[in-house]
Design goal:
mainly alpha
Length: 231
Amino acid sequence: MNTLHVMPSAANNKNGNDMGAESMDRIGLRRKPKQERSIQRLDLILAAAARIIAEKGVSAMRMTELAVAAKVPIGSVYQYFPEKAAIVKALFDQHASAIQAKTAAMFADVRSLDQALDRVCAIIDWYYDSYHDDPVYLGVWMGTETDQDLLQLNIEHSGRVAGIFHDAVRDLTPDLCDEDMYARTYLFSHLIGAVIRLAAVSDKELARRMLDQWKRVIRASLFTTSVPAAA
């Protein structure tokens, strides 16, 4: 597969720039652990955060409660995380990395548009099966929806997934210009995530019906070259 291709503005914020240093200072790790003991402590904090989020949600999590649950001093929590949003980002990054790796693996050897469509539908099923009963993922996702910087992370994640998919199919769609094909994969990437999250909080029978309908839409429109003109 080609090198990851990200079109201009794919993962940019509303001002046209990547997430700024100020935002990363707020939601990024204050320091990256290097020693084994420090790595284990960070893992304890994240594991405890995941348990609390699964039980109560992001908004109810408190840093002092987290320190108690992780059995570490409160100073150790703040040593790595300037605030709660940084913990949400760390957990979000774990999920996003898994999804991006799965996407890259599934589209590494695509040879036709029919095969690409089959893979898209397969990854929708994998995505739903992996996360619909995962309260941590759902809690983290809802946490990203209520914070401007964390919401931007979700948008950037959609751009990365779209870039992986676009690189896999760009040579298979000569009738579509590169910019239009990327715009389409970017849009579908973001919508797939939204549909999966809606399905995850819905009744399972309804969820399966929604996913089946969404896969029909994808098969009918993702690679079509005749798009009606806008009114």
